[in-house]
Each structure stands twice: as structure tokens, then as C-alpha cells.
Amino acid sequence: MSTERLLALLASRGQAQAQELAEALGVSQPTVSRLIQAAGDRICRMGRTRATRYARTRALPGLGTSLPVHRIDEAGTCTLAGHLHLLSAGRHWYSETDSLFEGLPPFASDMRPQGYVGRMFSAKYPELALPARITHWNDDDCLIALARRGEDCVGHLILGEESLDRWFRRDTVSVHPSDYPAWALRSDTEQVGSSAGGEHPKFLTYSEGRHVLVKFASHDAGEVARRWRDLLVCESLALDVIRRAGLDAASARWFDEGNYRFLEVERFDRVGARGRRGMLSLDALDNEYIGAAGRGAHWTSLAPRLLERRFIQAEDARRLRWLDVFGQLIANSDRHFGNVSFLETGPQRFRLAPAYDMLPMTFAPSVTTVVERPFEPSPPTAATLDVWADAALHASTFWTRAAGEAALSEDFRALARRCRDSVDALRERLGG
């Protein structure tokens, strides 16, 4: 009896217990145990109880069949969390939680390079020989990137020894806001900072004692640049209104420097110079545990499903529905599942992270022109009735503040007045 027969059997079955393997091969369990030992890292042992299962592994060049996963806490202390084992057919086993995933684990999906910042990743690290476009990457490409150049991804985990070594060698260098124009210029041709989602021009850095995400728009003439400058101010206003409503929102400020307007948003997955917090996007949670995306689902419809699974508490479910209503009433058409996240409080337990990326994206320009799109505030539904009136009140406050904000163009202030009137008319019709 050879190990090759055992490996072929595991490859076809995906996973199996020792007794099942013995019966299928027609041998004793001690023989199976010897074959498993002889196979070495070509077989992954999943679990440590009588229900232990075995699976065929796969290997990545230079990385082997498993990757250590380290956790950085809020004090900046590093500890080994577990190992991510690479299995056949693109599956993964994470030892810390004894979890089997058909694709990438949720935390790895969130950590992958993405958006505007991630699009230059392959060009910055040609030695990794990854596809030029991150949209063409498969899961193994993502793991190679995370294990070898993933020292500064979102959240608090680091995959692989090489990325961990790079994190230990990494110095946290403070960048003054007066240097932001130079960073903005660089970001058009190279990756500046770590991975972050979203296609709006941005970079990530450490400034004045905080890790920040910095969006920017030029002061060039023309309606497109002017509209983006308006929207950066609106994002700052919206986050402030959310905080005043009693919900957590990312700390943000806008300012003009050089030929740019910047929006500086403090990262909530970072603490001080080297500390970190664990987080997971709604997109990652849905992909792994719910599977509602692509079927007309939205934040409000997922709130009770997250509550049913005890991922979140009732108050956070209410706040998620509030944010959904508020977003609609301030014309935020970009309320996808990547634009809301959760901070980890325990194994598969979360609390709603501070709000971010909340702005009237209905009025975002196209590449070449400003397109005037209609805005129609939606009335409450049975699922939002308990939060609608308060969210509508604060949406009206947002539009009022935007209408009076001198930094906004006159065209946008006029647009804000019309939007406020639409929201207030709906509030009056509904008695509040």
C-alpha cells in the first residue's frame, strides 16, 4: 500500500476520517496512520478529537502547504494566532478556529490588495510575478501577495513569515500634511500606503500620531474636479452629522493644500504607531456565512440575518438599518457591502465599526462631465419604520449644513437646498 493511493483518495473525496479511509483502502487504521505520517505535509490533519478529518494539501512555490497567521494587538504586540493550511481544490483550513473554507477565509478576502491603492501592486512588486491586473488574480495569487508583501493590510493579521519579518523591520514614519500634495502626485504612478478598497484617488499614511486614509481631488478648473472637491467636503459633513446623531463614525477633516483638496479619515483598524484592531467587512461576512449579495440584498435586509446568527447585538442591527436609511436620504447610492465593517469582539462576534464612505455619490461625476441625476428620498418600510424619522431628521440636517457651507460650489449648495426640501416634504407628509 502506497501513500499515492491515499493521496489520490483524499483528492477525490476532499476530506475523510481515518476509519473511512481504512474502509475505502481495505486496510487497518494503524496502516492508515502510518501512511498519513509518511505523506508528511501533503496531508493536513483537521481537528484533534475523534472526529479528526484529513485532507490533501496543495503547495505554493516558496511558501509550502501552510502559512503562519500572526495577530497584532492594540499595544503592537505580535502573537501566533494559528496556521492557514492550503488544501486541494482551492480550499483552506484555519487551525485557530478549526474552520474549513471553500475559498479564501473572510479575513484574507478583506486583506487582499484592491481598489485605487491596490491597482499598482503588481507593478510595485514585479518579483512576485503576479498578473498585472488584480482583477485577474486567483486565490493563490492573493495568498502570495499577502504572505510576501502583506505587512500592512487592513485589520490585525499578518500572513506568512516574510510579511511578518517585513513588519518587524518596518518603521512608522510620520508624514506632515504639507507633504500630501507630493504623495498625491506619486499615487498616480505607484502604490502609496497599504491596501484599501474604493476607486477614488487616495493614499494611506501615518500623520500627526494617527494612521489615516487620505482622499484627494485637484483644484484644476472644470466641473468634474469641482464636483469631487464638493463631495470630499460632503463626506466630512456626513460623518460629523452621524456622530452628532449618537453613532460612531470615522474622524475626518478636509483641507486645501497646494493644488489639492484633501479629506483625511482616521483609520479605526489602527491604534497608535503599531497597534491594530481586527475588522471584517459586511462583504466578507456575507460571502462566507450568508450569501445574500447579488440578490437585491442591502444593509437593512442583512441586519436581522446577522442578528439571528448572533454575529452582532440588537443595537448594532438597529444602527445598521439607521445608516442604510440615512445613506439613502443623503443620496449615497454607493452603499455596497464593502462600505460597512465590523470590529471583532470574539470568535464570530462583532460590533459595528465607525461609519465611513458616507457621501452623496448619486451626484458623483462621470469621467468627463457632471451628470445631473434625480434624487428621490424613499419613505420608510416595515423594516425601517423605527429608525426612519430620526435618520430623516439628521439627513435634513446634513443637507442644511451643506447648503450653508461656503467651501462648496454655489451649484452644489443649490442642489443641497433642493435635496433638503425633498426630504423635508416627505417628512411633513409622513407626519414628522
TrEMBL record:
Family recorded in the similarity comment: Belongs to the HipA Ser/Thr kinase family.
Assigned GO CC terms: cytosol
GO molecular function, one term: protein serine/threonine kinase activity
Species whose genome carries this gene: Melittangium boletus DSM 14713
PANTHER family per the UniProt record, alphabetical: SERINE/THREONINE-PROTEIN KINASE TOXIN HIPA (PTHR37419), TOXIN YJJJ (PTHR37419:SF8)
Name the UniProt record assigns to this protein: Transcriptional regulator
Domain HipA-like C-terminal: start-end pairs: 194-422
Swiss-Prot/TrEMBL keywords: Kinase, Transferase
